[in-house]
User: Fold histidine kinase from Cyclobacterium xiamenense.
Amino acid sequence: MFSTSRGIAFVLAVSIALLLVAFLSLIDEVGSMVLLATAALSFSISYLLIHLSLEFLVFKEISNIYNVLEKIQRKDVSFKGVKKIKASLPPLKSIQTNINEYAAAKNREIETLQKNETFRKEFIADISHELKTPIFAAQGYIHTLLDGAVEDHSVRDKFLKRAAKSLNNLDNLVQDLITINQIESGFIRFLPVHFDLRETILEVIEQLEGKAHKRGIRIHFQHAPEERYYTYADREKIFRVLQNLVSNAIKYNKDEGEVSIQLKSHKNHLSVKIKDQGMGIHPEDLKRIFERFYRVEKSRSREKGGTGLGLAIVKHILEGHKSTISVSSILGKGSIFSFDLPVGNSPATLEKKG
Assistant:
């Protein structure tokens, strides 16, 4: 009886009616009909008020709390339709709100852990595959030599060069993994300096001209020759960003194509755009190309080489400079990678300030 609002309301209403009748019975002028009417009226009103109060202010909220707890036990904590409750409402409402917020926070935490677990599994699978490729290749060449091919000088030299190339790829992969882990962990500090971005781009072009020449690719640098493009950033890391993007533009370009590098100066920033004339990137792949080990099929296959970490490193380096890397692409026509850097000061300006 006492487990429901009706049972509690009935007992309390009877008690109130009996007390009121007992009190009125002490008055001589009050007749039995009045006492009966008073008892019926007081019972009805008391029962109705108590029942409604308990039902909507206590039992309904307790029921909601139990529903929330059941959802938590079932790991169903979507809480659709739950409204934000003001702190001025009754304690049971506040308790329910706190439980809702706690459960929602735990749900977000569980979702994050699940995403991290999925990412961990994918990462382990990816890195295992990436490591196996150069290791197995080097093993194959070395074991072939050990089985007797070492006596043939032409075969020996060819296989040793291929084994060395595989081990170099393995070393590059390990170095890229170390770099991206240090950046994500905050172990690598950015050391910004004022430098001419135009000169840095020219250094990258000079370094990669031989690679472009082998495929008949022209590198076209668009900028205002009379202007200086000073920026304030970590020169070494920005050099790596440019090196990676220009190298990719050459690697994934069509034979005898063109790589266009555009440098523009704006009021508060410098903008860099690197365009190739390759096969382009499918819209579905654009969202994922900055993920570790993500490779686009066909034009950006593993056959092109690389560790699969270059664009991820580019993304993290630019984020460390409070900038972002953006990409646009048209299938069959090529891709454009672009980013901004803050405007810096020239040596003359720095001397005046000093």
